[in-house]
Design a protein that fits this description.
single chain
């Protein structure tokens, strides 16, 4: 594999791993965490399919239309859940980005590099700005906070509490960061 194919397959692998981690997190005993993990698993696997290089898999337009329907339904679910959980707004934006990319791919199915490049469309630019901010914020949340006065080192550590590695919050944050970066890459190549 050379060039874009190699980076495309790397992106596929990253998205599959984050989707698989979402599936593992769905075993949580907390319903809210299961729903969020399910949405992230759907996003990870959906992004993996979208990232497969066109030389390996170039589906017809109706497959991308099906993606738009699936992620449209996921967006409606996120909108409904946003009444009680503000994090669902991020899932709403992510599902909207997936619908947008599926619609673009459906429009260009069977026509590689159709049209001319007239710059970045407004919606793509807005999504890029959102995901740049999300990636920066998610990355900042992964930076460890040093122990201060009155706070013991390792307080709140999932390993110290004896929970499984699939329920560690830092892994969930790292997966969200990875999906944010993958979304940026996919939007840049759109």
């Amino acid at each position: 594999m050379h060039g874009p194919d190699a980076s495309g397959w790397s992106l596929v692998a990253l998205c599959v791993v984050t989707g698989a981690h979402g599936l593992l997190r769905m075993r949580s005993g907390v319903g809210e965490q299961r729903r969020a993990a399910g949405g992230e698993a759907l996003m990870g696997f959906g992004m993996a399919v979208m990232a497969v290089p066109a030389a390996a898999f170039s589906p017809p337009w109706w497959v991308w239309s099906g993606f738009a329907v699936v992620f449209g339904a996921a967006g409606l679910r996120a909108l409904w859940d946003a009444r009680t959980d503000a994090h669902q707004l991020h899932h709403l934006v992510g599902a909207g980005a997936m619908v947008y990319m599926a619609a673009v791919m459906a429009g260009s199915a069977g026509r590689p590099h159709a049209g001319t490049s007239a710059g970045v469309p407004l919606l793509t630019g807005a999504l890029l700005l959102y995901f740049v901010g999300y990636v920066l914020l998610s990355g900042a949340r992964l930076v460890p906070v040093p122990a201060g006065p009155g706070r013991a080192a390792g307080t709140g550590d999932a390993v110290a509490r004896g929970t499984g590695w699939g329920e560690r919050p830092e892994l969930a944050r790292a997966c969200r960061l990875s999906m944010g970066i993958a979304m940026l890459i996919m939007l840049l190549t759109l």
